[in-house]
Amino acid sequence: MTLTDIQPMAGVGAVVFHNNKVLLVKRGQPPCQNEWAIPGGRIKLGESLQQAAEREVYEETGITVKAGEAIFSFDLIEKDKNAHILFHYVIVDLVATYIKGKIKASSDASNAGWFGRSELTSLHLNKTTENLLRRFSTFTH
Q: In CATH terms, is domain 3-134 a member of 2.60.120.10?
């Protein structure tokens, strides 16, 4: 396989607020391993963005959500120390509404929880997630 055979992968994330807290997961696998981020992952063939976001949130946290519209998109390109590309995802983040469930981290998440604004400073927060949450003026400084 050559570098030209490798293509970016499509992924989703879900921004879920409940009781003035945001749902975050601690990534248990690369990319962004050990960083706190919004839940999400790869889109499966035939899934809509909303279906993928709802499935990923459930798989990672046990929470049921209803995914809505796209609110943010970005490239996640992670390289090794020799500048070789390890991962390239094109990610679309959707707003999602909490429906039901109690958090239980599983799948790619090593931990998960609801976090208020004041708690974010104590987390090793993913930079893209941090920038995304700044867009919610009622939630972040």
A: no
Query: How do residues 68-120 score in pLDDT, each as one tens digit?
Result: 999 999 999 989 999 999 889 999 999 999 999 999 999 889 999 999 999 99
Is there a contact between 98 and 17 (Cβ–Cβ < 8 Å)?
yes
Q: Look up residue 22 and give its amino acid.
A: V
Q: Tell the residue number behind the tokens 């707003």, with chain if given.
A: 95
What are the start-end ranges of the E strands in the chain? 9-18, 21-27, 36-37, 40-42, 64-79, 85-100, 109-115
Q: What is the end-to-end Cα distance of the chain in Å, rounded?
A: 46
Domain definitions of the chain by residue range: 3-134
